[in-house]
Design goal:
By secondary structure, the chain is an alpha+beta fold. The chain has helices at 59-67, 88-106, 127-139, 146-152, 205-217, 252-275, 294-305, 308-315, 321-329, 360-367, 394-401, and strands at 6-8, 19-24, 36-51, 72-82, 113-120, 161-169, 172-181, 194-199, 234-239, 283-291, 341-344, 347-351, 354-355, 371-377, 383-390.
Amino acid sequence: MQAMGFERILGGVCAPEGFLASGVSCGIKEEGGLDLALVYSEKPAAATGVFTTNSMKSPAVVLSRERLLGGAARAVVVNSGNANSMTGARGVDDAAAMAAAVEDALEIPAGQALVASTGRIGEYLPIKRVVSGIRAAVEDLNPGGNTDATKAIMTTDTYPKELAAKMEIGGKVVRVGAMAKGSGMIHPNLATMISVITTDLDIGVDTMRDWLGKAVEWSFNRISVDGDMSTCDTVFMMANGAVFPGGYKMTEEEAGLFFKTLCWLTGNLAVALVKDGEGATKLLRVVVNGAGDDTEAVLVARAIGNSSLVKCAFHGGLPAWGRIAAAVGSAGVPVSAEKLSVAIGESEVFSGGEMVEFDPGELGLVVNRDEVEITVDLGQGSGSAYFMTCDLSPEYVEFNAGDKSLWRDPVER
């Protein structure tokens, strides 16, 4: 294994032992293409999830949250191109029909299928097509179906996002894999995203719930594209213990290694989501130091990352320290201009309440990089945090202003 203790591998959600996946087209997307994904554990698996905090949760989110109270699942089905959100009683019935179709086709117990939907809000699912697609996806399940599954959950994404890693635990090779989608309407908590994580490690559901919550907080909850929160955000995790059929109790060191690997995986996928933001041309990393505590640091970092003025300025190559300082002041955190310092890349541009002299040519090169780091020190304490966002471009506005889905006739059942 590598110095980190784990090694990146191929395989996505199918990298762990005992997991199969598939991606098919069932006719949801007008433009065609893969639009339904299925991930299946051949063995019983512990399962947990993290969901959007939006009050207008989609039927799939409500259903899956209830099912995960039992701490177990065998399959996850995800459709793209239609969020099945704000669809009333019919949407509730359709989410339940998706789960039932998976359970019937796989011949697994009721309550063992989880559901997620992503895409346009306010449209009914073509549920007959979806159910037919589920049957096709079950027939197509295979140990190399991870990339098709990853492509099938994409909406406005420009490329599939999947990762996997392996490590040695208990003298055996343990694997963890994941897929994720997200491009626009990304804002904590969570991001407008769907993610499925799998592992063949034996993990108790309480431990897995704790680890996933922390990993999500430090990754998917630290990104923003446009400040809008989705109704469908979902992160699922399943652990089937396939490499330890008799069970295994990890040492503290082994548990730390797996958790570190999980955080690496979610962190890298989170970066990929921001880089693929609708119309994005730059990744902006915001680092806040010197806050009263970490909670205050997160509030300030999010305020900067969600500022449309900051994001537009960096798209235009402007070193907008004034806009950054204004965003800091809007975060609701006690801060003094005399104690505040702001740096863009390697150049400090604001300190002690005043602009700092800098080399315009050097700073111009920095703000036009593909990745730019903004560092803020509040001078208040030892709290720190980071946040990742992207620039805001005309392409983002054109894309979202051009969505005419609300004017289409409802899809027939």
